Amino acid sequence: MRRRLISSTLAVVLVVIAVFGVSLVIVEARTIENSAQESVDSEAVRLVSVVENRLLSGEKVNRQVLTQQITPDRYALVEIPGNDPIEMGTRPSGKVIASTQKGEHGETVTVEESRRHVSDEIGRTLLIILAVALLAVLAAVVLAVRQARRLGSPLTDLAETAERLGSGDPRPRHRRYGVPELDRVADVLDSSAERIARMLTAERRLAADASHQLRTPLTALSMRLEEIIATADEQETVKEEATIALGQVERLTDVVQRLLTNARDPRTGSAVDFDLDEVIKQQVEEWRPAYRNEGRTITTAGTKRLRAVGTPGAVAQVLATLIENGLMHGAGTVTISTRVTGNQAVVEVTDEGQGVPPELGSRVFERTVSGRNSTGIGLAVARDLAEADGGRLELLQQRPPVFALFLAREGEV
Fold first, then answer.
1. Residues 214-220, mean pLDDT to the nearest whole number
2. Could you tell me the pTM of the whole model?
3. Are 336 and 300 in contact (CB under 8 A)?
């Protein structure tokens, strides 16, 4: 492309020089010739006037007087009736520019100049025009090279950006080149890179959320299955434990479906009015064996028979995350208490451990932030699930830790 730009620019410049240069040479040559002819005519007229004035005044007309009136390198012949011809200068050979003028008393003046002087002047003018044309060509080459670089480098850079996008590097480069058309292409590529980055982030987030959210129900399911194995000799107990395990599987399916729905459109929800006590009771029953194995207890307190608006499966998952955090990072008894504040139902989860380290603070809900060797995803996902139902999850107190889930009450949404 650079070669084409340079070649096309030079072609245009050469055409312009050819058209206007030839025209200029023709005009200048004619102008020089006309100027030389006019100068010779003017000198002949002037000599005739001098001769007439001297004849009228009775003065002699001789060579010494007239020689002072003629330009050097020119030849003049003065013919006066009854007198010998007067010649001044050397008569030129070859082609000449001549002018003959006659006076009122019959005198005749002829002035000649060699055409070589005119040819020399035309040659000097041609050299000047050629020099200017050469400078114009050089300037055109420099400008063409600069323009080719200005246009070629951005195109190469844009091609590299497109190749990076195709190879899976969606970082926008935010480079602009001062050319509106190229800047428009750069804007489109940067916008595409940002969209691709968001899509990749969403996909990675979905994978991380799914892996984390599936882990908690599967853990509880594993515990229930272990209970089934341990009580295999008791028919009724086996049936009860199997029913609980089936409920875990159903909630696991609900969690997967919700994650996929949020990945497509986070605003999509399935909030309903539900019994908050039932969700809390179900979670306590699921996690009590795990706490018992660790020599710890899990209890409930607060206002009973509360109803809230949300997605039961999502609320159960949020509580499961808080209870699991209490099991992994806390100590002593974990208490799940409920209360009412304004138009909201609040579920608080606390334990008797050291709480959230001071350096974490509110950052505990950020992804990858963790006080121990955990994924750092659980609380972030739990907050997202709560917000998707119009609620919110907050850390009310760092030590001892108090996490609060705020949900709208029936008739208050």
1. 68
2. 0.46
3. yes
